[in-house]
Design goal:
Layout: E1 9-12, E2 20-23, H1 40-66, H2 68-75, H3 79-105, H4 110-130, H5 134-144, H6 146-160, H7 165-175, H8 177-220, H9 241-249, H10 252-282, H11 287-312, H12 321-342, H13 348-358, H14 366-376, H15 382-412, H16 420-430, H17 433-456
Helix pairs in contact: 1-4, 1-6, 1-7, 1-8, 3-5, 3-6, 3-15, 4-5, 4-6, 4-8, 6-15, 7-11, 7-14, 8-11, 10-11, 10-14, 10-15, 10-16, 10-17, 11-13, 12-13, 12-17, 15-16
């Protein structure tokens, strides 16, 4: 490369969120083609639209947990059966198609894939409302899994080419606001619609807007140059899946990030998946009342948690990503203690009060998880990194947690009929997994410096130095 030896090599500093430092006397990093200028308004418009995509994905996924008890009663299902219908079915599509779609995202137009995914899952949410029996409902919910399979990895990859490394954690924390907005819509608004117009009417009302948003995105968002803001240009050829997985396994920080995020989803979102049904059984509430209680905390508590954490993670003393991971682990550990009291109490007032401490903790890890994982991933592998993290999170959150709680509730139930007491004991069995998630985040921080350094040195498939990849304990 002409003039390459005259340039300092760019290496990642572990203390900063993707901040770069120079080291003299070493070969230069690969030159990155000049990026097209993007205005601040364009950049944040894309962030807003990706947040909206995530909002609609979470709304369509979690609205079914609000009406879970209504579906169980109408179809005369056990807790294990309704868990399979509402939770496992969503994960099936992602498990089968998540990697192929992410393979395409790293090679084809991410905008087009995100738009296609949004329109598809929104249409299938409408189909859920039109379903007339168990089989039709199951098939519709399987298809809704396309939201995570194509939408979230594509949105993450797009945002990483609109925001530089030092701003990605903040941008992806804003993106993660969609979780708070989506769970509010899927709880409060879904509960109100279901109460007045039936649970089928709720799916029709919440699915249709996604089709319109998809058309708007296709008309107003451009596909950016891949890797345009990275210090090292991506190779033209994306490595095969086996090489990507093998490289990820040589990054202990990545492995712990993925496991920590997955177990946190198992713990926090697994508990919240069953909470509307628990409120209806334990405190004799209707679907509107249960949805309103949760929706208010999702919107205000979760939204404030995302905004506060976005501000917090931009403070100078938290520019070290290792500190961010330690704070994240401590937050989850605190939330774990709170959840023990939540599902132990028989007081509705105390239950509602403690939700304001618990629910914010299940939002605060989302931005750091996406942001730091994108910094650990080479630019041409980001969608696949995100897909692996979402696969682990979806399997633990949508397969393991609902089914485990459902089976335990059925086994604890007197005469095989699940009730409030059986569900309470089952949820308490899930509570301690939060400590497991916190441990993984702390461990990720211990390996982060080495993994960022090795990535800057080109230790990735298809890059200079890639052959020197070795496992770090």
């Amino acid at each position: 490369m002409p003039g390459a030896n005259a340039q300092p090599k760019v290496i990642a500093a572990a203390e900063n969120l993707g901040a770069l430092a120079t080291a003299e006397g070493e070969p230069a990093a690969l030159e990155v083609p000049a990026a097209e200028p993007v205005s601040l308004a364009q950049r944040w418009y894309v962030a807003f639209m990706m947040c909206l995509v995530y909002t609609l994905s979470i709304t369509d996924r979690y609205s079914i947990s609000t009406v879970l008890e209504l579906i169980r009663r109408e179809l005369h299902l056990s807790d294990a059966n309704v868990a399979f219908l509402t939770g496992v079915s969503l994960a099936i599509f992602y498990v089968v198609f998540g990697f192929p779609l992410s393979w395409l995202i790293d090679r084809k137009s991410r905008r087009d894939i995100v738009v296609g995914s949004l329109v598809a899952w929104s249409g299938l949410t409408v189909a859920t409302g039109l379903a007339r029996n168990y089989s039709q409902l199951l098939l519709a919910r399987i298809g809704v899994g396309v939201g995570e399979a194509g939408g979230t990895p594509g949105a993450n990859s797009l945002l990483s080419d609109y925001f530089p490394p030092e701003r990605r954690t903040m941008a992806l924390q804003v993106f993660s606001l969609g979780a708070a907005l989506g769970t509010w819509l899927g709880s409060s608004i879904a509960g109100i619609i279901a109460y007045y117009f039936s649970w089928r009417g709720m799916f029709l009302a919440l699915g249709a807007p996604g089709i319109l948003v998809g058309v708007l995105m296709w008309l107003t968002i451009r596909e950016p140059q891949r890797g345009r803001l990275d210090a090292r240009a991506p190779t033209a050829k994306v490595p095969p899946l086996r090489a990507i997985i093998r490289f990820m396994c040589t990054q202990p920080a990545t492995v712990h990030m993925i496991l920590g995020t997955g177990v946190a989803a198992l713990w926090g979102w697994g508990l919240l998946w069953w909470t509307p049904a628990f409120l209806m059984r334990a405190f004799a509430l209707n679907v509107e009342q249960a949805g309103t209680i949760l929706g208010r905390v999702y919107l205000i508590g979760g939204g404030l948690a995302m905004l506060v954490s976005t501000w917090l993670f931009s403070r100078p003393w938290l520019t070290d990503q290792r500190r961010i991971l330690r704070v994240t682990g401590a937050t989850i550990a605190f939330g774990t203690v709170v959840t023990w009291f939540i599902y132990s109490t028989h007081s509705l007032a105390l239950f509602k009060l403690l939700l304001w401490l618990f629910i914010p903790t299940v939002y605060m890890y989302l931005g750091p998880s996406f942001g730091i994982l994108n910094n650990l991933a080479p630019a041409n592998m980001r969608a696949m990194y995100c897909a692996v993290m979402l696969l682990v999170a979806n399997v633990l959150n949508l397969v393991v947690a609902p089914q485990m709680v459902g089976f335990l509730s059925d086994s604890f139930a007197p005469h095989g009929v699940p009730d409030a007491a059986s569900l309470r004991f089952a949820l308490l069995c899930l509570v301690p997994t939060g400590f497991w998630a916190a441990w993984h985040f702390v461990r990720a921080g211990r390996h982060l410096r080495q993994d960022l350094q090795r990535l800057a040195d080109g230790a990735a498939p298809g890059t200079a130095g890639g052959a020197a990849v070795r496992r770090i304990g």
